[in-house]
Amino acid sequence: MSEREVALIIGGGPGISASCARLFSREGMVVAVAARNPDKPVLEALEAGHGVHRYPCDAAEPEAVARLFEQVCSDLGRPRLVVHNIDGRMADIFRKGIIEADPTLVRQVLLNSSFSAFLVGQQAARAMLENEPDANGVRGTILFTNASAALKGYPRSGAFAMASHGKSGLAQSMARELGPEGIHVAHVPIDAAIGWTQEDGSRAHRLAGTTKDDNMADPDRIADVYLQLHRQHRSTWAYEVVLRPWLENW
Amino acid sequence: MSEREVALIIGGGPGISASCARLFSREGMVVAVAARNPDKPVLEALEAGHGVHRYPCDAAEPEAVARLFEQVCSDLGRPRLVVHNIDGRMADIFRKGIIEADPTLVRQVLLNSSFSAFLVGQQAARAMLENEPDANGVRGTILFTNASAALKGYPRSGAFAMASHGKSGLAQSMARELGPEGIHVAHVPIDAAIGWTQEDGSRAHRLAGTTKDDNMADPDRIADVYLQLHRQHRSTWAYEVVLRPWLENW
Amino acid sequence: MSEREVALIIGGGPGISASCARLFSREGMVVAVAARNPDKPVLEALEAGHGVHRYPCDAAEPEAVARLFEQVCSDLGRPRLVVHNIDGRMADIFRKGIIEADPTLVRQVLLNSSFSAFLVGQQAARAMLENEPDANGVRGTILFTNASAALKGYPRSGAFAMASHGKSGLAQSMARELGPEGIHVAHVPIDAAIGWTQEDGSRAHRLAGTTKDDNMADPDRIADVYLQLHRQHRSTWAYEVVLRPWLENW
Amino acid sequence: MSEREVALIIGGGPGISASCARLFSREGMVVAVAARNPDKPVLEALEAGHGVHRYPCDAAEPEAVARLFEQVCSDLGRPRLVVHNIDGRMADIFRKGIIEADPTLVRQVLLNSSFSAFLVGQQAARAMLENEPDANGVRGTILFTNASAALKGYPRSGAFAMASHGKSGLAQSMARELGPEGIHVAHVPIDAAIGWTQEDGSRAHRLAGTTKDDNMADPDRIADVYLQLHRQHRSTWAYEVVLRPWLENW
């Protein structure tokens, strides 16, 4: 079992998750990424280039999340940093009006985002409460990525507003409950589209129709903030950090 | 089919739902109440005393909610006022710490509260968009009751904070989307325990351990506010009204 | 001295103040309006048509506000309803960028809006704490009108955002402090331009450049909400009610 | 004129201001501190130990603030980092009920805190708009320290709630206005008492009656966050960071 800190990232996209995995790895942590499909090229590249460990997990399933934490604890050790980076957005429901949204998909968005945040938060708390406090008195950090929809309920976005607000309420409750136990819970709504530089040098982004490079959050810079939050002294913890680009309209 | 306004209340407890049913009925509306068990004595008394129509409905089930609206529209006419009054709180999860909460129950809380609000809101919007605007230009009012947990994520209350925040995000999105269509969506967090006078004159309240009568919201007064919101002129709609007793600590 | 309730409105424009004066008067209250210039035609018309009492007062001056309350208490009796309806907006500073705003005017906006709210709130509290509780246990109601700038700091609006947020913070502190004393303090941000029908039937509004009638708050309807707040049962007080027209973008 | 970045700190106490001055100086910046009395021992020690430049300034006076910026620009160069660190709290008004507070002092608190933030923000913006963008496209950073009273209007704290909320509204407006110009405006409410280690090793703190060391924010750690904000990439700017100790009740 390693002396190095273990970081576990739930959600395996090419944006924030990949940026976090690379940064945490460069900072000397043992990094695991869990995704529904751990065999995506982006995750294979993280393994090849940064020694990242890949795990399969449907984070909306209680048993699957319990198994994931057991496996990671047994393979790598108890994590000191867990990032929940699933927003549950689905193309089929995006920008649908309230009467158009398919209830089955809405339910899935809610379970993939809010409920999976609960499951991951619960297992992370359970594991971290057994960690010895570090020199700073801290047992671990749990970070929840969120979206603009956590800050405001936009029209034609009811399902996503519900799921994002739900995740926000959970994070806030956990922060108040676990702070005095030495676990730093923080909530990071990214109030912008997220863009990143692809291998061919072109700019990729999540949302179709967005063209201004300037107005997208760079996931490498988001990862910097996550690391700062993990290293923040417990006398001055931030609970919520909303990140948005300089040109974003808010 | 009646010329009178139809009001549909989802959730059939002895507090806000019963107070609303009595008031709306006294104000000349045709009133329906839907509950998982419509044969509860409190609902039978509303039928006997106020002509309230009772319907069975598990509001977390898409089909059941669709059937409820079909039935009410066919029996009584399309509603102009819909109140979602389910908070999904469950004794088995109340004040449980994050690592103690049973995931199966947490999921149920989320579906009973947030997801049922979506299902009810969707069917209400669908029905109301077919209403002719009234003299005031309004097609209908959708009210979401909520709890303190919608305003703040309290410790040892993660599941409930998640479900209540989710409902809040949904309501806000619906208000922005449906306002320009002439549908008034409002969100009413009750930041207090709710107490009411029982038939024997004693004071009943929802939460064990609360003893101060003075510090509980009276559901008859909450119903007054719901009626004011329903009658509010569209030039000055309130979206959110937080109600709390004068002695409440906030 | 009258048995009728005394209402005192600070700020004497043709919008909310006039609407409140007319409504409170129709509801049987003795109504006083204080303005820097009490001889404006709109106020003379309120006296002629509704028996409204007019008082001169520069509400940013401690002595002037103290004298006003002394005079009103002595002439009409201690008020049970006080409305602070000054926003301090000044044409010369409106939509000015941060580096263009004249510090002397900014200071004046801050004193006219925030500081006058403190002075009025202080004198209102002092007078009401001597009122006997009414049947509902209430000694009085203090209402603070506010603007969109209390909800969000818009660009090119720094002085006004500062003054409006300041008034909001004061109101919230007073609500928490005075609620348990039986004084209902409420804060009413009007998130819209305010328009009203002039004597010639045309539509007047405060802000140049606004043309949509539909998208302005009607001050008569705002006055309705103020009366509801004054009459609200203390078991279910609302502290903040944001009012906006159905077509408003928020 | 130096090639080094110039940082100007307004407010010269032994807590955040001194911690910032030491850190910014260690990071290679030219540091100036302005205070009503620049001859306080804590400032003399900063000069002696860290080469900090001291300036006299009553930050509630327009002319004084204009002169300060002229002098600093001329002596040291245009600042790229300005910290407004005055909260205007005064012992004579602390925890006073609304009817006890002396209006003259309340006015002073408002001018010392909110209005001085405007004056400093205005001069800082004026200077920075003339800065060449750095490699990151940024012309400068303006940071406003604030207090718990900016987040919530506590009872018996009306004047302070007003002043703190006012400062918050100003900062938010400035952030929206100046972001697209490449100036990062951020607001940092410290939701806690602030404590620090004195030269004799004992723990000093601002508020009498606070005894738990664990529950006070360490100003050296606050300064770390200020530096992170100054260095934050413009694709992911945080506007507001609330800092509180792990044991703080919120």
What does this entry look like structurally?
The structure is a homotetramer of 250-residue chains. Chain A is of the alpha/beta class and 250 residues long. Helix content of chain A is 38%, strand content 21%. Chain A is built from six helices and ten strands; from the N terminus they run βαβαβαβαβαββββαβ. Chain A has a seven-stranded parallel sheet, sandwiched between helices. In chain A, strands 8-7-9 form a three-stranded mixed sheet. In chain A, a hairpin with a 5-residue loop joins strand 7 and strand 8. In chain A, helix 1 runs parallel beside helix 2 and helix 1 packs across helix 6. The longest helix of chain A has 26 residues. Chain A starts with 5 loop residues before the first strand and ends in a 6-residue tail after the last strand. The model of chain A has no long low-confidence stretch (mean pLDDT 92). The interface between A and B is large, with 49 and 49 residues. Strand 10 of chain B pairs antiparallel with strand 10 of chain C, so a sheet runs across the interface.
